[in-house]
Amino acid sequence: MEITPLIWIITIAVTIAFFVYEFFAHVRKPHEPSIAESARWSIFYISLALLFGVGIGVFSGWTFGGEYFAGYLTEKALSIDNLFVFLIVMTGFAVPKIYQQKVLMIGIVIALILRGIFIAVGATLIENFSWIFYLFGALLLVLAYRQAFSNHESNPANGRFMTFVRRHLPVTDEYNEDKLTVVNNGKRFVTPMLLTIIAIGFIDLVFAVDSIPAIYGLTDEAYIVFTANAFALMGLRQLYFLIGGLLERLVYLAQGLAVILAFIGVKLVLHALHVNELPFINGGEPMLWAPEIPIWFSLLFIAATITVATVASLLKTRRSPDVAETVDASGALSSLESTDTAGIAVPSTSAIDKENS
């Protein structure tokens, strides 16, 4: 796949333009998006991603087109899991509904920047060290195991990282509109809004660790890796408000993602064996008996796994409506008041909404 520097420049410029438009058209003025608005833009971005994949297939061949679609599906599924953690973070910090768009927007931009860095590093490693596939494969297998048995009950807002941040930053326990800092009695404090953004940025870094090796298990084309990630992140803000009330019903999402990560991990290990150059494995000779899993099979497997996990989750929660703690569409838990580990009282969303009304 021949991608010239000009194509890279145009792609990155268009991506930046989309996010700039998103900010000035939708995020700059604080408001809570309606279901209709979220649905329209979600459909637009998903349609745009699908059309781009068709374009890759038509102009570069359907092998690359299949790699793009497999990567896009994987990244979209991982992004939805990312949304679930965003939901918990914004609930923990009781971010008012009208400011959640800004937090999401900044979080998504941070995610794209971090993934861009990881993509560049990954491409360099793959080009120079074929053994990196062993490392990526092993990492995904470990992450798959952790994903299968993880739960989202712990609140990242009260984790060790945020405790460290609070210990070194003067924090006010009140929001001041969407400001990140505020001056009280001549001293500058950071607001819970800034803490929320820091928490989401840290979470983005963690998610990039499994996101990038996963898609490099499906394609070694850095351009496909970048565009699949960019399109998976585009529209994620609208998707949050569209399916926010359904996130807690996807009870088997973690297990579905674990299956996908494990599958890609095995695929990477088999590929590493097929192109082996490590002297202490088979005398440095490739093991041609190791099968190369075709991209069409990967695409079908990933799509089927996502479908089964989603359908099974909806059937489970339909039969057992109390399977998870109720979370409303805005991402606010039905609790009164929470206190973080640093002793800072975080007001409930309902209380803040009353103050804003």
Fold and architecture overview:
The protein is mainly alpha-helical and 357 residues long. It has helices at residues 5-27, 35-60, 62-92, 100-128, 132-148, 160-168, 192-216, 222-233, 236-243, 253-274, 295-319, 349-356, and strands spanning 181-184, 187-190, 337-339, 345-347. The strands form two sheets. The protein has a two-stranded antiparallel ribbon with strand order 1-2. The protein has a two-stranded antiparallel ribbon with strand order 3-4. A hairpin with a 2-residue loop joins strand 1 and strand 2. Residues 324-357 have low confidence and may be disordered.
Please give a quick description of this structure.
The protein has 357 residues and is mostly helical.
Query: What is the oligomeric state here?
Result: single chain
Q: What is the strand content?
A: under 5%
- State the major sheet: 2 strands, antiparallel
- Mean pLDDT over the residues: 78
**Terminal CA distance:** 55 Å
| Total strand segments | 4
**What percent of the residues sit in helical stretches (DSSP H or I)?**
55-70%
What is the C-alpha radius of gyration, as a whole number of Å? 21 Å
Helix-strand sequence: HHHHHHEEHHHHHEEH
Identify low-pLDDT runs.
324-357
Strands in their spatial order, largest beta sheet: 1-2
**Helix tally?**
12
Structural class: mainly alpha
Q: How would you describe the shape?
A: globular
